[in-house]
Design goal:
The chain has 79 residues and is α+β, with helices and mostly antiparallel strands. The chain is 24% helix and 16% strand. It has a two-stranded antiparallel ribbon with strand order 1-2. This is RNA-directed DNA polymerase from mobile element jockey-like.
């Protein structure tokens, strides 16, 4: 189903008639052009690794921090 106000903005569509469907109804995938481009802005901070103080990092400390975060996430999400 699509709104009548969007019908002229459809640029492509296809019927997805997968064999694993348990119904005689098929999904329709449509591409809609809204007339503008989204900017791809990276939110990741860029680091200058050449200026890093690598003596502050140790494998044991990093391992402990990763393990701590995994255990924390487990307690939050696993009953």
């Amino acid at each position: 189903m699509i709104s009548s106000s969007l019908i002229d903005k459809i640029t492509d569509f296809c019927v997805l008639n997968s064999q694993d469907m348990t119904s005689d109804h098929f999904r329709i995938e449509a591409s809609i052009s809204m007339g503008y481009q989204l900017e791809n802005k990276s939110t990741a901070k860029e680091f200058n690794y050449k200026k890093a103080n690598w003596q502050l990092f140790t494998i044991d400390q990093l391992n402990d921090k990763i393990t701590e975060k995994i255990i924390f996430a487990s307690h939050k999400s696993i009953p």
